[in-house]
Amino acid sequence: MPYTSTHSKHEIIPCERCGSAIECKANSYTKCQCSVVQLSINEVQYISELYDGCLCAKCLFELQQEYREAIGV
Length: 73
Prior knowledge:
Elements: E1 11-14, E2 21-24, H1 41-50, H2 57-70
Antiparallel strand pairs: 1-2
Pfam family, one: Cys_rich_CWC
Protein name: Cysteine-rich CWC
InterPro entries: Cys_rich_CWC (IPR032720)
């Protein structure tokens, strides 16, 4: 039986917006949960003006919707 570790290969950090624990996979971006939210360059700029750190996919989606409502999309 193969040995499986209970430790994650990636760092567990809090979402800067809601504080929920997220597994940061910056070294494997396409597998990171934040990659599921497809943001335009303008949405990225909007979010980066508000937050510096990592955000969970739920918060990214909510901020995307907030931005779209603000510009009337």
